[in-house]
């Protein structure tokens, strides 16, 4: 596997990780365990899912409980922060996917260009060989039958005069 394909594979894995395919890093339990108010944790998770849903998150849906959002400041703050986090996470995933798609397109274009170049080189080579054969056929000296020259010791051969 070449370095181009490896970089595309790494980007795809990163895009999948950024979209949450590997599991969400933030859970309600983890927020409560770190000392956040349970209403904040509920608001954060609802806002997080809503932010992802509004930005193309698969399996996420809009969730905003009107009463707690307007009455409870913890839920309100958690929802707003979760929404911002979910939105930014999806935006990063889209950017990573766009980069990997652009890399994939570049690799495919390079492969196509290489294939066309190799075919042109083959065609050029065949054309040169055909031209060489035609040239040899056109410029070949006609073969004349050899006429035997009788040489008798009493009669020396004629002198060769340089031209």
Major sheet: none
Q: What's the overall average pLDDT, rounded?
A: 76
**End-to-end Cα distance:** 68 Å
Structural category: mainly alpha
Number of domains: 1
Global shape: rod-shaped
| H/E element order | HHHHH
Unreliable spans: 1-23
- Backbone CA Rg: 40 Å
User: Got a strand count?
Assistant: 0
**Number of DSSP helical runs:** 5
Strand content: under 5%
Helical fraction:
55-70%
What does this structure look like?
The protein has 163 residues and is mainly alpha-helical. It has five helices and no strands. It has helices at 3-18, 28-33, 38-54, 66-71, 73-139. The protein starts with a helix and ends in a 24-residue tail after the last helix.
Keywords:
163 residues, mainly alpha, 5 helices, rod-shaped, disordered N terminus
Topology diagram in text:
Elements lengths: L2 H16 L9 H6 L4 H17 L11 H6 L1 H67 L24
Helix pairs in contact: 1-5, 3-5
């Amino acid at each position: 596997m070449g370095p181009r394909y490896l970089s595309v594979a790494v980007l795809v894995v990163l895009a999948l990780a950024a979209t949450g395919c590997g599991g969400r890093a933030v859970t309600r339990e983890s927020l409560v365990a770190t000392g956040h108010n349970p209403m904040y944790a509920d608001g954060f998770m609802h806002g997080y899912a809503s932010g992802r849903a509004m930005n193309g998150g698969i399996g996420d849906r809009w969730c905003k409980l009107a009463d707690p959002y307007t009455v409870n400041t913890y839920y309100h703050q958690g929802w707003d922060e979760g929404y911002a986090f979910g939105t930014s996470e999806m935006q990063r995933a889209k950017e990573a996917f766009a980069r990997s798609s652009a890399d994939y397109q570049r690799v495919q274009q390079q492969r196509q260009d290489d294939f066309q170049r190799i075919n042109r080189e083959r065609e050029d080579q065949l054309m040169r060989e055909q031209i060489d054969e035609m040239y040899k056929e056109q410029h070949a000296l006609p073969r004349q039958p050899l006429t035997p020259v009788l040489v008798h010791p009493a009669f020396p051969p004629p002198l060769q005069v340089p031209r």
